[in-house]
Every structure is written in C-alpha cells, then in structure tokens.
C-alpha cells in the first residue's frame, strides 16, 4: 500500500542489508501508528540525485512486495550529521530509525562513532537498532528514571507509543544514598506512575542493585526481553565525550542488540501538555 503520509518515519538508507533491518523496525511502528516511511539517501553532488532516485525507487518497490508498505523516497544533498534531522523536522517526522554496527573501528574509539555524532543534538529522537525486531509491535519498554529534570521527557515518548500499542513498561531507578537525588528520583517516579496509570499503561518498578546504572539497565532490559529502551542523552554530550567515546556509545551498541531510543534534552518542552 502507498504510504506517502504526513509525519513519515525517516530511515537513512545505505548498505541494503543493514538499512533493511532499520526498515523492518519502521514497518512495525508505521503499521501500528498508521504513518508512512521515508527512505533517505544523501547524494555527494546534485548530478547523482536522479540516478540515486531511480535506484532507490526500485528498492521501494521491492520493499513493498516484501513488507506491504511502499516507502517514500527522498534523495538530497547535505551533511550526514545534520540533513536527516533537518528532513525529519521539515516533514514533521516523530522518529528516525537507524541501523548501527556494534563493532567500532580503532579510530572511531578515539574520535567517537559517526552514529553518536549524528544522533547528538537531534531534535527528533533516533531509534538505533542492530538486529531485526523480535516482534511485530513494541510490547515491552524499559524506562530508566534518574534524578534529573530531563528524564521526564522520556515519558512524552511513552505516551506516544501508548497511543497505538499497549506496551508494558519496566521502570528502573538507580541505587543511591544521596538524600537529595533520592528525593528527585521519587518525585520523577511518582510523576511517571500517575501519568502511566492515567493512560492505562501497565508497569512495574525496580531499583538497581549496582552502582553502574547504565550497565545495570541494559542487563535488566535483556532479562525482561525488552523491545526498546528509552534513553536520555546528557545535555552536555559535547566534543569531549564524542572525542574519547562515552558510556552512551557503549549503550547504543549494547551486546544484546536491544534497540535504544535516544532522546536529546529539549528546551521547548517545558510547557508540554502531558495529557
């Protein structure tokens, strides 16, 4: 079926096999959310656009035969670090789904992975995937909640998924003896509980027993057989973190291949209507 609709899910298209894994994840969400999918390929110069459009158009026809959804095709010039996000904003897209390799080269370990550089600062969340989806729809989501104000932004995306699927949410909080942080964590959990109950979303709450919260919630998600982890990127994820690598990079390339939704902090959500 033709899916040239508003707010398409953006899928950057590169090597066919890897990009098709991202497309598979997009298909499940697009069918449930009744939205479209757009394959995006960047051309190195304008003279190549027509040729790439023809090639990608055939890819779209083949994907429709295989998955029942014909994606829109977008070929344009631009920086790999900015253009996908720009296109998502121009089309009103809610998501970009990108495949990532777990194996990072020696130089990337020093300079930071290209994928993390692309994701950092994007106003539109990326879902980063390594393997084909386990299920046709998202059934189990892990939501790490800490003491920060920004962690509440992840709930906006839980509300988004709850509109078209019925995920079970596994909340996990860090272990801490810091009284101030503990107070903020409890406030954030209370906020999440109230919102999820209002939306009729089933959930449970666990407390990490390990000081390494990042490693803990990845292992926790594996034990829960999660389809997705919603993770907040730090607002200070700058050049230093990207240059020398970061724990976020380890999380998005986690050993279990669990898809990670990467949400960057936004200043325009202070007055968001959570209802």
The sequence of SSEs as H and E is EHEHEHEHHEEHEHEHEHHE
Number of helical segments with 4 or more residues? 10
Spans where pLDDT lies below 50 across 5 or more residues: 239-244, 270-275
State the major sheet.
7 strands, mixed
CATH topology of the largest domain: Rossmann fold
Descriptive notes:
The chain is an alpha/beta fold. It folds into 2 domains: 9-99, HUPs (Rossmann fold, 3-Layer(aba) Sandwich), CATH 3.40.50.620; 140-269, HUPs (Rossmann fold), CATH 3.40.50.620. It is built from 10 helices and 10 strands. It has helices spanning 16-33, 49-67, 83-90, 106-111, 114-119, 153-162, 179-199, 213-223, 239-244, 247-252; strands at residues 9-12, 37-42, 72-76, 96-99, 126-129, 140-144, 168-173, 203-207, 228-232, 260-263. Strands 4-5-10-9-6-7-8 form a 7-stranded mixed sheet, sandwiched between helices. The protein has a 3-stranded parallel sheet with strand order 1-2-3, sandwiched between helices. It is globular, with a radius of gyration of 19 Å. The relative contact order is 0.14. The model is unreliable at 239-244 and 270-275 (pLDDT under 50).
Blueprint (SSEs and pairs):
Blueprint: E1 9-12, H1 16-33, E2 37-42, H2 49-67, E3 72-76, H3 83-90, E4 96-99, H4 106-111, H5 114-119, E5 126-129, E6 140-144, H6 153-162, E7 168-173, H7 179-199, E8 203-207, H8 213-223, E9 228-232, H9 239-244, H10 247-252, E10 260-263
Parallel strand pairs: 1-2, 2-3, 4-5, 6-7, 6-9, 7-8, 9-10
Antiparallel strand pairs: 5-10
Helix pairs in contact: 6-7
